[in-house]
């Protein structure tokens, strides 16, 4: 399917790097590019409904390409020159039942 093409987004990946003096884990953050991500703005009605349900102002839905193995739960993601944070657990479809190149969907809210 070459008609629809996603864009590159940048995912901030946190990895445990040790513990601090109080025994709490410390993390290092790296940025990884994820290609072919579809970005869908929410309609005003959907954004208001999400805000009423969750208290978060959801701006976009991201469609994640098949085969992506990143963790998309509560992570920072950058595109359009802004940083967003994913909200909730990604919704994932069955690979063989979805004809296009994307099988996960995650919501994002403004972060910075």
Helix content bin: under 10%
Number of helices: 1
Binned strand content: over 45%
Report how far apart the termini are: 35 Å
The sequence of SSEs as H and E is EEHEEEE
Query: Can you tell me the overall shape?
Result: globular
Computed structural class: mainly beta
Which whole number gives the mean pLDDT? 91
- The total beta strand count reads 6
Largest pleated sheet: 6 strands, antiparallel, barrel
Ranges with pLDDT <50 over ≥5 residues?
A: none
Using only CA atoms, what is the Rg? 16 Å
Strand order of the largest sheet: 1-2-3-6-5-4
Overview of this protein structure:
10% of the residues lie in helices and 55% in strands. It has one helix and six strands, in the order ββαββββ. Strands 1-2-3-6-5-4 form a six-stranded antiparallel barrel. With 112 residues, it is mainly β. The chain is globular. The model has no long low-confidence stretch (mean pLDDT 91).
SSE topology sketch:
Blueprint: E1 7-19, E2 25-41, H1 44-54, E3 58-65, E4 76-79, E5 82-92, E6 102-110
Antiparallel strand pairs: 1-2, 1-4, 2-3, 3-6, 4-5, 5-6
Quick overview of this protein structure:
This protein has a 6-stranded antiparallel β-barrel with strand order 1-2-3-6-5-4. The protein is built from 1 helix and 6 strands, in the order E-E-H-E-E-E-E. It has one helix spanning 44-54; strands at residues 7-19, 25-41, 58-65, 76-79, 82-92, 102-110.
């Amino acid at each position: 399917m070459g008609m629809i093409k996603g864009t590159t987004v940048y995912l901030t990946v946190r990895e445990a790097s040790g513990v601090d003096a109080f025994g709490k884990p410390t993390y290092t953050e790296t940025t990884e590019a994820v290609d072919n991500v579809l970005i869908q703005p929410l309609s005003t009605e959907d954004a208001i409904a999400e805000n009423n349900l969750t208290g978060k102002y959801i701006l976009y839905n991201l469609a994640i390409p098949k085969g992506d193995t990143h963790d998309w739960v509560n992570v920072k993601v950058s595109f359009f020159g802004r940083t967003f944070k994913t909200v909730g657990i990604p919704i994932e479809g069955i690979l063989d039942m979805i004809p296009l190149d994307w099988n996960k969907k995650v919501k994002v809210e403004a972060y910075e």
